[in-house]
Specification:
Blueprint lengths: L6 H17 L6 E6 L2 E7 L2 H4 L6 H13 L7 E7 L3 H10 L3 E6 L19 E4 L3 H17 L1
Parallel strand pairs: 3-4, 4-5
Antiparallel strand pairs: 1-2, 1-3
Length: 149
C-alpha cells in the first residue's frame, strides 16, 4: 500500500508555510502539527507582522493545535518544522509534551540541539533531515537577499 501522508508530505506542507513567511518578509520558517495523519494546525513565522518576538512558527502551531484539540498536551501529535527549533520553542514543545518532532534543517547557532535533547520532554521522539536541502536553500536565499540591501 502506498502511504501518501508520510513525513515527506507533511514537511512539504511546512515548507509551503515557510514560503508564505518569506512572501511576507518574515524569516521563512513553517510548521504543521499532525494528529492521526491529519494536519490540525499550520503556521509560519509572524514576528514582524505581530511585532512579537515569540511569534515563531512552532509557538503559533502549538497554540493552534492545542485550541483545536481542546487541551494543552500534544502527546499524540507530530510537529513538522523547516528549521531546528530554538531553545524557546523547545521549551514550549516540552511543556506541550509533544509526541514527535521532525525538523528539516539544522541550526548550529540557535538550535536547541546544541544543548541536547534534554530540553524536550523525555518521551518526545526526534527525527531530522527530511527536505533539508530545500529548506536550507530557502533560508540561505532569504538571508543573502537581506545582506545585499
Amino acid at each position: 500500500m502506498i502511504e501518501v501522508y508520510n513525513d515527506t508530505y507533511f514537511m512539504k506542507q511546512a515548507l509551503l508555510e515557510a514560503h508564505k513567511a518569506k512572501a511576507q518578509g518574515e524569516v521563512p520558517i513553517g510548521a504543521v502539527v499532525v494528529s492521526k495523519q491529519r494536519i490540525i494546525s499550520r503556521a509560519h513565522n509572524s514576528t514582524e507582522l505581530l511585532t512579537d518576538v515569540t511569534a515563531h512558527a512552532e509557538i503559533l502551531a502549538i497554540s493552534a493545535a492545542s485550541t483545536f484539540l481542546g487541551g494543552k498536551y500534544l502527546k499524540d501529535c507530530t510537529l513538522y518544522v523547516t528549521l531546528e527549533p530554538c531553545i524557546m520553542c523547545a521549551g514550549a514543545l516540552a511543556w506541550a509534551q509533544l509526541g514527535k518532532l521532525v525538523y528539516a534543517a539544522s541550526d548550529e547557532k540557535g538550535g536547541f540541539m546544541r544543548y541536547g535533547k534534554v530540553l524536550l520532554h523525555p518521551k518526545t521522539k526526534v527525527e531530522y533531515g527530511i527536505l533539508m536541502p530545500e529548506c536550507s536553500l530557502l533560508l540561505k536565499d532569504f538571508f543573502e537577499g537581506k545582506r545585499v540591501k
